[in-house]
Amino acid sequence: MINNHKLVEIFKTIAREISLRKNELTELDRLIGDSDHGTNMDRGFSNVLSEIDNYKDKDLSEIFTFVGKSLMAKIGGASGPLYGMVFVRSASIFKDQPVLNQELFQRFLTSAVASLQTYGQANYLDKTMLDVWIPLTKEYQHNKNKMDLIKQIDEYVMATKVRQALKGRASYLKERSIGVIDPGSLSSSIILKEFIKEI
């Protein structure tokens, strides 16, 4: 289970991992997007990292709201609003909850998928971050094994490599989008694996 102090540490770890993999994310986006996914994600999470210690004694919902609003304010392109809404819209799930447990994490995943589908106008197999969020949400309903879930998340990311993009800038490339991992799926995996490790 994850309390407020642990949640702050999770987001700090995510921010550091995004920074370490910024160039990898940007290179994937250079091949099928705007060449800025890594830079944008790093900018957003660097802002989170610089301020989140101020929230370590706040409740879970306030932490999620802070992270979401920070990402919306600092990340450009489509990713900022999408990731931002994932955290802002799910914040109400954690109102007055002392810890984030497995049941609440399932509700978070379900809320995230709804937000991504609503604001991203995408679905499973469109070669977007939903190609990670949707199958994980279904898998988590009956499988709580951490190592297995982390392995599955990596497989969801790799599976985007063989798909043709149907949404976003990558869709303009049509068949040429095949052969490259979706950068949004990779950044999603960084976020989700850290939660899975700690919950």
Describe the structure.
Keywords: Kinase, Transferase. It comes from Mycoplasmopsis agassizii. This protein has 199 residues and is mostly helical. The protein has a single domain, classed as Serine Threonine Protein Phosphatase 5, Tetratricopeptide repeat, CATH 1.25.40.340. The chain is built from nine helices and no strands. Helix 1 (4-20) packs antiparallel against helix 9 and helix 7 runs antiparallel to helix 8 (146-159). The longest helix has 19 residues, at 102-120. The radius of gyration is 16 Å and the shape is globular.
CATH-derived architecture: Alpha Horseshoe
User: What string, H for helix and E for strand, traces the elements in order?
Assistant: HHHHHHHHH
Measured by DSSP, the beta-strand proportion falls in under 5%
CATH topology: Serine Threonine Protein Phosphatase 5, Tetratricopeptide repeat
Terminal CA distance reads 5 Å
Coarse morphology: globular
Proportion in helices: 55-70%
Q: What is the CATH top level name?
A: Mainly Alpha
Mean pLDDT: 96
What's the total count of β strands? 0
Query: Low-confidence parts lasting 5 or more residues at pLDDT below 50?
Result: none
Largest sheet: none
